[in-house]
Amino acid sequence: MRGERRRSRRLGRVVWACIALGGFVASTQPSGCGALIDPPTQTVLPPADAEPGRWIIVDGANNTRDIGGYATMDGRTVKWQTVYRSGELSDLTAAGCEAFRNLRIRRVVNFRNQFLPTVLFDGDSVCVSLASRQTLLPTLVADGGSYVETVRIYAGNYRQAFELLADAANLPLLYHCSSGKDRTGIMTILLLTLLGVDRETVMADYGLSDLVEATTDPQAASDLLDEIDRQGGIEVCLSGMGVSLDVQDAIRVLLLE
Q1: Which of 4, 43, 100, 120 minimizes the number of CB atoms within 10 Å of its CB?
Q2: CATH pick for 2-24+52-255 out of 3.90.190.10, 3.40.50.2300, 3.10.129.10, 3.90.640.10
Q3: From CA 180, how far away is CA 132, in angstroms rounded?
């Protein structure tokens, strides 16, 4: 296994563009270089009766899912194989790298606070970085903190992720954080709500992380949805975060069928 991981880290180079609160940083480090801060990621398999197509098994990553297939309240469907979500990707095995390549992902958005290389593919990996506030976001979400407050503080970072989704050249796109449940969960709540998926389904999707031992905080997710309603709906909420109506419309066009 250890040798397999070493081989996986020689599979390609990744161009890193870090869209940070404090500026722009680019790096062309070989993929997989840099010390791992966390223990190797253990892939937890979903239940045998899990929804077909929802879970993507990527060895060395956990909680990797396709957000497609959900019906919207206006009768459309979120496209499959267009947007993916995941936990940490920096410990993929060679088999995991191959599974990832098969997804044909063009853009990776990294919501982690640590700036670590990703081992994946020849192409762009965009890090919507939280580097200038490294200690704040993990504290907010790791201790049962407020998703509402997280969105308020990092509105500009989430805005940049939405702007990437509005460009067909970036699709398929994957976004991830450490466990794929908090920072990634917030992004998915906002995105599915924008696409017109009903609240019950959004909450059910959020809760799927529990099936792979990534414990969620349903109250924090519910509070975020309440705040969206309090502000007057998702379009108003995202506009307040700097996501223009044109960007919102473009995302709907690209991700719905």
Answers
A1: 4
A2: 3.90.190.10
A3: 21
